[in-house]
Automatic annotation (TrEMBL):
Pfam families to which the protein is assigned, alphabetical: Asp23
Protein name: Alkaline shock protein Asp23
Family: Belongs to the asp23 family.
Species assigned in the record: Defluviitoga tunisiensis
Domain of life: Bacteria
PANTHER family: ASP23_GLS24 FAMILY ENVELOPE STRESS RESPONSE PROTEIN, HYPOTHETICAL CYTOSOLIC PROTEIN-RELATED
InterPro entries: Asp23
Length: 111
């Protein structure tokens, strides 16, 4: 993510954004685990470098896709919305970036 200022350019790597998002998710109520897109196969193969968080950019937006395992017995919609709001607020306040989309993908439930 490149940000132009009057003094020059600031380059924020996706890994930094991923770390911010990860901390916001683990502080949220109801999230148990995070997986990559393939879910179960990531756990078997030991691929955890993306922590279930994909960060991408298009011309106008920063797009964050989350792949989560939620706690069984909780209202899924409310938990997902809470996580979505927490991530949006954290990234918006830390990076001072307005055009942000946060997509929550529930990969499963766990007791």
């Amino acid at each position: 993510m490149l940000i132009e200022t009057e003094y020059g350019t600031i380059d924020i790597k996706n890994d930094v954004i991923r770390d911010l998002v990860y901390k916001a998710v683990i502080e949220s109520y109801g999230a148990v685990e995070m997986y990559g897109k393939s879910g179960f196969f990531d756990k078997i193969l030991g691929k955890s470098e993306d922590k279930g968080i994909n960060v991408s950019e298009d011309e106008e937006h920063l797009i964050i896709d989350l792949y989560l395992i939620l706690e069984y017995g909780l209202p899924i919609k409310k938990v997902a919305e809470n996580i979505q709001e927490n991530v949006h607020h954290r990234v918006k306040s830390m990076l001072n970036f307005e055009n942000l989309k946060v997509n929550v993908n529930v990969s499963g439930l766990k007791c």
